[in-house]
Amino acid sequence: MDGDVAPLRGICDLAERYGAMVFIDECHATGFLGPRGRGTDELLGVTDRVQIVNSTLGKALGGAAGGYTVGPKLLIDLLRQRSRPYLFSNALPPPVVGCATRAVELLLASNEIAQSMTAKTMRFRNKMTQAGFTIAGSSHPICPVMLGDARLASLMADDMLKHGIYVIGFSYPVVPKGKARIRVQISAAHTDDDIDHCVDAFIQTGRKHGVVS
Question: Which parts of the chain have pLDDT scores under 50?
Fold first, then answer.
């Protein structure tokens, strides 16, 4: 939610010190973090130190539903027998599986998509910061535009839609009180012109509401 990345190297150090396994939830990393889009463990160079990965097919992989868990065979066998969400869920629709499979194939075939995400993310973050906005996090494609006030976030999001930009205002209880923001999510489908248009819309809307000068 804050556009930051977990200190996974330190977590792995602690796990190794105390004989623990490392489990990571990669729903906001799969498909775009790391040189080949393989996630936080690839980004931070600890792929061989993470034992269990849980992620989704419904975000960057485009399937709109479903998810997966990968890990040691004994663990996966146990989950197949004892995991209630797995046992009491229907199988995924074939089109969802086909879409997600194709998305993975594209990522495996080339690092171009993942690399373009990095460039587009930094373009948005840098231009917004130069315009006077506060963007939480550092290099994550989830770019929270911090506003602080819930009503302000809602009003600005409504005004952004008038400029053809669909963004959502987040406020308490989704985020802590005083941490209201508009969350922008950069996509590989966005062009540089799309990003520049979004920034221009934020500047106009921000000036209207006295957020930037």
Answer: none
Residue-wise burial string across 150-159, b where 16 or more C-beta atoms lie within 10 A, e elsewhere = bebbbbbbeb
Output DSSP code: residue 96.
H
CATH code reported for the domain at 112-209: 3.90.1150.10
CATH architecture of the domain covering 8-109: 3-Layer(aba) Sandwich (3.40)
Residue that the structure tokens 């406020």 belong to: 171
Closest CA to 194 of 100, 122, 120: 120
* Contact yes or no for 46/124 (Cβ under 8 A): no
pLDDT at 200: 98
Cis bond leading into 173, ω under 30°? yes
| Exposure of 170 in the CB half-sphere (CA atoms within 13 A) | 17
Q: For 97-116, how does the pLDDT look when each residue is reduced to its tens digit (9 = 90+)?
A: 898 899 889 988 988 988 89
The two tokens of residue 153 are 């976030």
Alpha-carbon 78 to chain mean position: 29
Domain ranges for the chain, please list them: 8-109, 112-209
Q: What is the pLDDT of residue 175?
A: 92
pTM, to two decimals:
0.85
Which residue has 């690092």 as its token pair?
111
Residue labelled with tokens 């106009």: 204
Smallest CA-to-CA distance from 170 within 186, 152, 188 is with: 152
